[in-house]
Amino acid sequence: MNDRALWLFGYGSVIYRPSFPFVEQRCATLRGWARRFSQKSDDHRGTPALPGRVVTLVAREGARVRGVAFRIEATRSQSVLDELDHRERAGYERSAVTIELDGGAHARAVVYIAHRGNAWDAGDEREDEIAATILRAHGPSGSNVEYLFRLAEALRALGDPDPHVLALEAAVRAQGQSVTQ
Ligand code: SIN
Fold first, then answer.
1. Per-domain boundaries in the chain
2. Does this model's pTM top 0.85?
């Protein structure tokens, strides 16, 4: 059993759909990593025949990721981790990192990262290629477009929009328009 309260750092769908009980949420920053739509999703936002694209983190010197840290009670931390292990099962692993909570404090946190070379790694695709896949993919959790648009909206609400996510949002809107014209 895990007997300590847990901070969980979310940077993707966890930001706008925390599916677990928490007692506090704080905006936070993780340094040395960048958000990237380079992970295939064949179970949430796509299918094995047409996997969608979702975010993971890639190590990058000087980069930083804004996200949301959730504090989970000690008595619930093991069951929350078990649930997230299942939700993030397509290539993600738990990592322990140090985050900066807004206001200045540092905290140790768990974050789910799908590392380069995992079985669902889509590699270095161009943004127009990623956008074309996002436009077509749907899975049991909904459309890949919804995943992208909700994330873009959540990051705008955090006051620190991510240029990669905004570029994909614009590319999907532009490609979607050219499909319907
Ligand atoms: C996360 O949001 O922290 C992990 C990636 C995702 O599920 O979108």
1. 6-180
2. yes
